[in-house]
Design brief:
The protein is α/β, with parallel strands linked by helices and about 240 residues long. It has nine helices and eight strands.
Amino acid sequence: MNILPHNISTTNDLLTSRGGLLAIATLMKKLNLSNLIDKHFIQPKSNRGFRPSVFLNSLILMQHEGGIRLDDLKYLKKDTALKKLLGMECIPQPDSVGDWLRRMGISGVKAVSSINKELCHIGLKDIKEVTLDIDASEIRSNKKEAKKTYKYNHGYMPMIGHIAEINHVIETDFRAGNTAPKAKNLEFIKKCENNLPNDVKLKKIRIDCAGYQKSIIQYCDENQIHFAIRAIMSQTLKNYINSLD
């Protein structure tokens, strides 16, 4: 066996296995996200409290790493090299983050909506007409209050609205798992539309069969919105399609 011409030695340099988070952190800095967060969220009453951006920046990085619970923050907290690289002086304890999220409540939801609208405006740039995709997305959960979804799993079934041109989530509606995917879809579409920048028009909508509703089709017709909705096939509809040939 030939000996490879490499020498192995020890080092005291800080190392991290989370180098991929650099791209996310760079984007967050480019978007000036910390200032946006601190602008819209309620500030701490004490000068010893963390700024809102400290909490949310930690959560964003944790989720991009694949974390699914607050306790996963401890892995970032222990990564000295990553914190030094990103210039993060502190990552809050999971319990502190949970307490902060509960304190924010509805005001936090409104703050996220305001931030999201500004980010959408940045992403759209010169785009003035957009396509909206809406769909329910199952989140499995072992929580006691989680209800059974139509897929027979316990969890939640939030409705999510995407702007197709920039792959941006414009609105979400957190729903119980047993909520029908077709519930209040027109109201959700209007919320998505209201979240768009003032100079941007909703031009197209795409929905699965949960959106096959008279009220949605009428709304699209009245507002000159093109739509693609998967219909629930029936003999009556099939006969009508055949009559168009």
